[in-house]
Write a structure and sequence with these properties.
The chain contains eleven helices and four strands, in the order αααβαβαβαβααααα. The protein has helices spanning about 5-15, 20-30, 50-55, 80-95, 125-140, 155-170, 205-215, 235-245, 245-255, 270, 290-310, and strands spanning about 60-65, 100, 145-150, 175. The N and C termini lie far apart (about 85 Å). The chain is mainly alpha-helical.
């Protein structure tokens, strides 16, 4: 090749568009992940590395385990409301005091919600077995104390049984977190509520408010509508006493209400509510301010209890 042709070839290299090789290299670059970025949360087991768990064990032997559910929460709240809100509260606790947050299961015991799509229900015998075995795994690594954070009312008895099994059958020490918070709850000013008291439970303004604070992106308040309830006549008759705060009425009401259709009680969610919400108050009356107040009270009380437990039984005590 003479000098003129060589110069022309060099100039062509710099002035021409991308070469086939460069185009192929560009095509190999992966596109941006379209999902939201995951931000690492301190002391949250799914985000931690093994050395980070080892380091935490030098400061704490306490684990918070949310006991949750995957069940319908009306047309405006996510199926994972109980799981998500329980885990988020546990994370908030772990930012103020050193404890490990270890979610184990998403579903819980929710057979009475199976008439609405999306609910997943497990038998209580399976649930408690999984949680006890998970606790045993964590004990092998050096964790000793367990706070079971029940985030779903239908798991209450199962949670107490898990606590008892850990205490009776293993080297671990377990506490039902919800049962110990009362003396530690701070006096937090709550938003004024001038509405007259009405029946307002599953999927109602309380859970909606908590979700508006903890997982606002997942709340579709525009889809919320007041539910139409159809209760058995004798339960309808006791409802004023339930709303009025009669503890006996509430106990017997809940003993019968929201039960599996297979029991024949006629009190499954599908049999009692038009929307899946168990209450007559409009969920659109919920506020994130109320959700913050409820969460702040719970988190503050949990931190105070853990600090007191650490005083009574310092980490590492055998």
């Amino acid at each position: 090749m003479n000098r003129t042709l060589l110069l022309s070839a060099v100039l062509a290299t710099f002035t021409a568009g991308p070469t086939q090789a460069s185009l192929q290299a560009q095509e190999l670059l992966p596109p941006d992940n379209p999902l939201p970025r995951i931000e690492k949360v301190r002391n949250y087991l799914p985000h931690m590395t093994r050395p980070e768990v080892q380091d935490l064990l030098t400061r704490s032997d306490i684990v918070i385990i949310p006991v949750a559910s995957l069940e319908q929460h009306g047309p405006h709240l996510p199926i994972g409301t109980d799981y998500l809100n329980g885990v988020e509260r546990a994370k908030l606790i772990a930012q103020q005091v050193d404890v490990l947050v270890a979610p184990i299961l998403l579903p819980g015991q929710s057979p009475y919600h199976m008439g609405f799509e999306g609910t997943i229900s497990l038998p209580s015998s399976l649930i408690q077995e999984v949680y006890v075995e998970a606790a045993r795994s964590l004990m092998r690594h050096g964790f000793k104390r367990f706070l079971m954070l029940n985030a779903h009312g239908g798991n209450a008895a199962t949670t107490r049984f898990i606590v008892d099994r850990i205490n009776q059958e293993t080297e671990g020490i377990a506490v039902d977190l919800g049962s110990v918070l009362g003396p530690f709850r701070p006096d937090i000013e709550r938003p004024a509520d001038t509405s007259p008291p009405v029946f307002d439970r599953h999927g109602g303004t309380g859970e909606t408010s908590n979700s508006m604070y903890l997982t606002p992106e997942l709340v579709d308040l525009d889809a919320a509508v007041p539910a139409e309830l159809t209760l058995p006549p004798h339960m309808e008759d006791m409802l004023p006493d339930v709303v009025g705060g009669d503890p006996t009425a509430l106990t017997v009401f809940l003993a019968e209400g929201l039960k599996d259709e297979a029991t024949g009680k006629g009190t499954s969610a599908e049999e009692m509510t038009s929307t899946g919400v168990w209450g007559v108050r409009d969920p659109r009356e919920a506020t994130s301010e109320r959700g913050w107040a409820d969460t702040a009270s719970m988190v503050s009380a949990a931190v105070a209890f853990i600090e007191r437990w650490n005083e009574l039984r310092p980490p590492g005590t055998r």
